[in-house]
Structure formats: C-alpha cells, structure tokens
Amino acid sequence: MTSPAVDPAPAAHQAVSTPRTAVPAAPARRRITGAVWAALGIVYVVWGSTYLGIRIVVETMPPFLSAGTRFVTAGLLLVGIIAWRQGPAALKVTRRQLGSAVLVGLLLILGGNGLVVLAETSVPSGLAALLISVVPAWVVILKATTGLRPNAGGLAGVLLGLAGLAVLTLPGLSGDVKATGVVLVVVATFLWSLGSFSSARLPMPANPFTASAYEMIAGGLGGLTVGLVRGEQHGLDLGDVSTRSWAALAYLIVFGSLIAFTAYAWLLQAAPLSLVATYAYVNPVVAVALGALVLNEALSWPIVLGGAIVVGGVCLIVSTERRG
Predict the structure, then answer these.
(1) By the 8 A CB rule, do 10 and 30 touch?
(2) Measured between alpha carbons, how far apart are the two ends of the chain, in Å?
(3) Can you give the pTM of this predicted structure?
(4) Concatenated DSSP letters for 100-128?
(5) What are the tens digits of pLDDT across the range 274-320?
(6) What share of the chain is helix, strand, coil (3-state, %, to 5)?
(7) How far apart are CA 261 and CA 265, in angstroms?
(8) Which of 39, 99, 201, 224 has the smallest number of Cβ neighbours within 10 A?
(9) Three-state secondary structure string covering 27-70
(10) Spatial separation of the C-alpha atoms in residues 200 and 269, rounded to whole Å
C-alpha cells in the first residue's frame, strides 16, 4: 500500500522537485505521458496481486515481522542498486530530508501497509483490496484542508467510490468477516493517504528512488519493532513456515516493493495525485479475481456489487484528469 492532493504542488512523495512555496491559486496540471500510464499499469496489476501474496504470507508467518522483513530487505536491495547504478553520492540526503522520508515511510508502510497485513489475518484478500477504495475520499478531504476544492468529476467519482465502500462493509456488519479487520483497513487507508499527502509538502530527497529506499527501510524497521513488541517472535519456528509463504514473501519483496512501490514513488512526482490514487479502484479487480481463483474466496453479492461501483468511480476520476 505508499498520495497528496489532486492538483496542488507536485505530489512528490519520494522526490520534491519544485520549491516549497505557498500553493498557487491556479496550479498547473502535469502532463499525463506514456511513461505515467506504464507506471500506472505496474501499480495497477502488481499491487493488485500483492493482496493475494500478503494473505498467503500470513498463513504461516506473523504479520508485522513478515511485513517488516519485506520492506527492510527491499529497501536495502534498492540502496545497493542505487549505489551501483548512480554512485554512492545519490544516497546523500540532508537531515531534514531523511527525517521527512522516515516520517512518510512510517505512515505509508508501518501504518498503511502494516495494518492491512494485520487485517488480512481475518479479512479475505479481495475484500481488503476493495476496502482500499476509500483512499481517494481521504485524498479529497486532505486536499480540502489546503483550500483546494475538487472539481465536479473528481467529487462524483469519490462519492461513487464511497457508495461502493458502504456496500463492501456489509460482510463485516453481517458477521461474515471480523468487523475489526474492516476497521483496520479503513484506518490504514487514512494513514497511507496522509503519508502520501504529507510527502508533497515535506523536504523529501531529490532522488525519488533514494527516498523510496529510506522510506521502505524506516517503515520496515517500524514493522519489525511493532512485531517484537506484540510478541510475534514467541513460538515462531521458521521450520513451520510453508514453502508457499516463503515464495509469496519473495514475490512481495521483489515485485510488490522494489518494482511497484518505486513506480508509485515516481508517479507521485510525475502525475496528478487523483490519477495516481485510482490504483485503489483498479487493484481490487485484480485482487478479487486472484483471491477467487487461487484461494477460492467467495464472491458474495456485496463484493461483486461494491466492486462494480468503485470501478465506476475510477472511470470518472481518470476521465476528469485526462481532460485537465
């Protein structure tokens, strides 16, 4: 799961390439290029599959320790890649930039992703992904705090997404899944949105990949710490971890973190946030399909109907951004 407001200053979650000035009255919209759509495609498909990966990991691994291991490993690998391809100088940041990256990493990875991992111990992967549809709603709310009002198309898309979210909460209300799991996912989406929103307004490292590496390491260390505090290490026997859980963890490290998270980091710098946030509508389609095919997760009418509604929301937001 690492987004700032729709049209304001550059949503440079990982890298802020413009000066930190007051939000202009009529901010310029960034062009949506082919590279942006390619990165979106990666985030759409790969992140959609990570919900299945997470569900398989937590079958035999503790949530926070596995999530922490995932991101620390991915972050260290990315540090090595940056040093190899761009030189050690690319990893240099100021104390303020490092502090900002740590804060954003804790919000995105420990809060956003960590709570989703915990929730998936009791919530089906497809439903968890569908609940993430609330992200664009948080984005609009956070955007409004800066005095920037959403346009009609974006607002309509978010309202449609929220209507779908209301339908998706029915399994939790009916007792089909644990309501606490549903609440955890919704809280996670707020923390994820807050971290992404804040990253555009903090002095982040100029290199988006460097920022991504530090965020993953900080968030991963936070996850490991929470896991240890929760006592997840007690009774943990690595010999009892299934082969498919190890394979899923490896997939999450390489594809979910190194590739997709970094693509997301770049998107927050290169594309309007409202467009980037549409991954929250598209990922569920992938997640629900994989959950049903691989884990035989039930496709109840609230999931099917709610999913159809939130996917309709993404069409409104995407079309609005393209016209902009």
Answers:
(1) yes
(2) 26
(3) 0.77
(4) HHHHHHIIIIIIIIHHHHHHTTTS-HHHH
(5) 678 777 677 777 888 888 888 887 777 777 787 778 777 767 766 66
(6) 75, 0, 25
(7) 6
(8) 99
(9) CCCCCCCHHHHHHHHHHHHHHHHHHHHHHHHCCCCCHHHHHHHH
(10) 8
